[in-house]
TrEMBL record:
This is Helix-turn-helix, Psq domain. GO terms for molecular function: DNA binding. Residues 26-51 form the HTH psq-type domain. It comes from Flavobacterium frigoris. InterPro entries: Homeodomain-like_sf, HTH_Psq, WH-like_DNA-bd_sf. Pfam families: HTH_psq (PF05225).
């Protein structure tokens, strides 16, 4: 009995598809201009490859949106901290001014919540 030789399967050559073409194909499919099936035949690309590109792009876009939302939240938190500092600083100036001049102009010009904070700061200054 002679040992059988293994027959080699012909290697399938894949086309390299540029990123811009991938985006163009996905855009045409998303806009309803062509179907996945038609794009596959038109460009000689498997439907599974096109579906894979679409899935990857969707995943990338979702991650990008999540990251941008997280960055926006971070910036807003930083801005809140800055504004809280400015508010506290302004209240300290008002409280210091009222203590040193014995004038109560904050009662006439500030909302109730801010007035209470200024009053607390004045009490701390008088201690």
């Amino acid at each position: 009995m002679e040992p059988t030789k293994k027959e080699h399967c012909p290697k399938i050559e894949y086309k390299k598809i540029g990123f811009d073409l991938k985006l163009s194909i996905i855009d045409q499919i998303s806009n309803g201009q062509i179907s996945v099936n038609h794009a596959s035949k038109l460009h000689g690309i498997s439907r599974s490859s096109i579906t894979y590109w679409m899935k990857k792009l969707r995943s990338f876009e979702q991650n990008s949106k999540a990251m941008s939302k997280n960055q926006e939240i971070k910036k807003l938190k930083e801005r809140i901290e800055e504004l809280e500092f400015v508010k506290d600083f302004q209240q300290m100036i008002i409280a210091d001014f009222e203590v040193s001049t014995n004038l109560d102009f904050a009662k006439k010009s500030l909302p109730e919540a801010l007035l209470k904070e200024v009053e607390k700061k004045k009490k701390n200054l008088l201690k």
